[in-house]
Amino acid sequence: MSTNKAFGKRIRKLRKDNNLTLEEMSKIAGLSSSAVSNWEQNNAVPNVDTLLKISRYFGKSVDYMLGNEYYANNDMQAIFRGLNNMNDKESQKTLVLLNAVFDDIAF
């Protein structure tokens, strides 16, 4: 499947699964609803900054959004969604905790 088709299919499914209209999705992306429509019709893919914004909003990896099944791990997606919803204080606490965990792991 081409990148355009994979992205178009996934963005449409995510939008529908989250009960978002084209207009609501366009506000999330910071673009026009015609841009979102073009993605869903496999006519275009967003630029990197917009792709990152969308993937973070839905808690999905960029790889997943572009059609790479290997990186579509539900546990990691849940973690990313949680991280994206934290305020600055929660983020700092999490960073301290993760640093402590990774200091104990030998790679």
Q: How do the strands and helices of this protein lay out in sequence?
A:
Layout: H1 3-17, H2 22-29, H3 33-40, H4 48-58, H5 62-65, H6 74-84, H7 88-103
Helix pairs in contact: 2-3
Please, could you describe this protein's structure?
With 107 residues, the protein is mostly helical. Helices cover 68% and strands 0% of the residues. α2 packs across α3. The radius of gyration is 16 Å and the shape is elongated.
Descriptive labels:
107 residues, mainly alpha, 7 helices
Short description:
With 107 residues, this protein is mostly helical. Helix content is 68%, strand content 0%.
Percentage of residues in DSSP E strands: under 5%
Low-confidence stretches: none
Structural class: mainly alpha
Question: What coarse outline follows from CA principal-axis ratios?
Answer: elongated
Largest sheet: none
SSE sequence, one letter per element: HHHHHHH
Task: Calculate the terminal CA-CA distance, rounded to whole Å.
Answer: 35 Å
The beta-strand count equals: 0
Number of helices: 7
Overall pLDDT confidence: 85
Radius of gyration: 16 Å
The percent range for helix content is 55-70%
